[in-house]
Amino acid sequence: MACSLTELPPPLSCISIVAIIIVYVIICYLVIDLIDQNENRSEKNCSGLSPEGLQAMNCFYYHKVGSESICAICLDSLQNSHICRAFPPCGHIFHCQCIDPWLANNLTCPTCRASFGVELHLYS
């Protein structure tokens, strides 16, 4: 005894249609909420230093006698007279042309993930 939609009594078919519409609206709401959450996460992750903040950080000519250091961004060695910046909280050194785009999008050290606004306290 199969039953089709045309055989259902009119009130039951109306209830079925309303239930389908309610489920559709709930699914649309959940999808829109998920998209909004992803946009908020990407905005939080892409906040970095402003151009004025980058200019406030000091550049210097790298000079080290002994073992060479490596820029963790480009993986090239830091050589004497390269223009570099030191990341303030941890002191890691990078080429200016490497660290500037990084700091425009991230506020953490590429080597140790120290936060730009938090000073590291090392205990001996």
TrEMBL record:
One of its GO terms (cellular component) is membrane. It comes from the Eukaryota. Keywords: Membrane, Metal-binding, Transmembrane, Transmembrane helix, Zinc, Zinc-finger. The chain crosses the membrane at residues 15-35. Pfam families: zf-RING_2. SMART domains: RING. GO terms for molecular function: zinc ion binding. It is found in: Membrane. Residues 71-113 form the RING-type domain. SUPFAM superfamilies: RING/U-box. Belongs to the RING-type zinc finger family. ATL subfamily. This is RING-type domain-containing protein. It comes from Cinchona calisaya.
